[in-house]
Amino acid sequence: MQETPQQYTARILTFVEGRDALEVLASTARRLRTLVETTDPARWEIRTAPDRWSAREILAHVADVEIVVGWRFRIILASDGVRVQAYDQNVWAEAFQYGQVERAEALATFTAARASLVSLLKRVDPARYEHHGMHEERGRETVPHLMRMIAGHDLNHLTQIERLVL
User: Fold this and answer.
1) CA–CA gap between residue 131 and residue 74 (Å, rounded)
2) Which of 26, 50, 53, 77 has its CB surrounded by the most CB atoms within 10 Å?
3) Residue 13: which residues within 8 A CB-CB, separation 6 or more?
4) How many domains, in total, are found in the chain?
5) Which of 67, 84, 59 is nearest to 5 (CA)?
6) For the whole prediction, is pTM greater than 0.85?
7) Is a pLDDT exceeding 70 seen at residue 1?
């Protein structure tokens, strides 16, 4: 059964309850690097079901998400109330052949994009945190809400990767 946007939001936010979103955002690349460097590469290819992603595919996904959210934060921080386009992650996974993306490439993409995002969030005028975007599926999303969503997304996928590779 497909989740509604509201169900997805509620589920993702449970991962970050009681945690500082910016600290999670700042630590994810290090956690991913440790997993890539210390686990058997063969484990990254395992799919638990035909319709489930492997750890390699999840890593490619989080790298692409980081590109998307980097843009989303920038447009929202620059233009309060801007429209935020949704996308279909499964279409991207197929179109961009996530199963073929090298782990080192995905990790490098994620790490660079995330470092840039964290730096931006630390230096931007705090008044811009009051800005919001209008996500075409989830509605109004403020900067702090989006930070929690992405931190929850990180923790969700880190858990999935750990289950597959450890």
Assistant:
1) 11
2) 53
3) 148, 149, 152
4) 1
5) 84
6) yes
7) no
